[in-house]
Amino acid sequence: MKLSIGIVGLPNVGKSTLFKALTAQEVHIANYPFATIDPNVGVVPVPDERVDALAKLSNSKKKVPAVVEFYDIAGLVKGANQGEGLGNQFLSHIRECKAVVQVVRCFSSGEIIHVEGNTNPERDIDIINTELLLKDLDTIEKRYHKAESEARSGKKEMVVVRDALKKIKDEIEKGVPLFTLPNHSEILESIKMIGDLGLLTAKAQIFLLNGNESDVSDALKEKIKKMNAEYVIADLSSGNAIPELIKSAYKILDLMSFLTTGEDETRAWTIERGSKAPQAAGTIHTDFEQKFIRAEVISYEKLVQAGGWVQAKQKGWLRLEGKDYIVQDGDVMVIRHG
User: Coil, helix or strand for 226?
Assistant: First the structure.
């Protein structure tokens, strides 16, 4: 699956520093089918020592890690939802993203001017959330009025859509981001039923708190915790934020990796936790899901312990799993298909 994350924040909070660190990561683009040639997209490998170990074990000609696409968005300012500043241009990109990273400035510096005059992370989070909410309200109102009109004209199937849109619209009008709601998963199901609306506050959120641990107050941590979101504290000038950021993205999106290995290549594949074997096979090739027969499976640890695929087979450690098998993190698989 394609994992893409949008980076948002006010101007001068460290977004450019983060993106420079992201684009410094080396990825063999030819091995990455989703690669986009765009100056504001960084394709970053997911750190996974299992890929290196299996590539060595199988003497693979190449190794392909799972990757994350990061979309760098122009700094938002108040009024961005109405077209103020360059930030409004980000919406076409971020609507396609699985999650949003809000870069929040926690460090103080007289040399770097803050667009709001002073450093106040909690206020800055509220500004960004408000802009995202207002844009979502604009999106949902247009869809709601259209659905309401069609329902009145006699399209019975649109009554359900209209009611679902009304439910979401009511939540947004309360001024609370959808990702913070206790019934967030229920809201997501309603959105799926309607069709992808690209609602920005419905996406999983990670707050990258730019500064040192001492710059981050307990009140800020508590605020984010109450919002049902993840946070990473990192001094972006040190360039150590990326692994933790990717780890948080996997956690909040409930993702994991399974692996394939052989002489040609060793590769990590990203799937949602709880995926069954045919769904996992479909990430390798769409035809594999429909034509799935079975999978040969062994855990990464067991394969390394055996010393290779042939040795694992001789020990009887390979398992044959069918369509109902739920793939586990670190499974090494060979897919059999029609």
Answer: helix
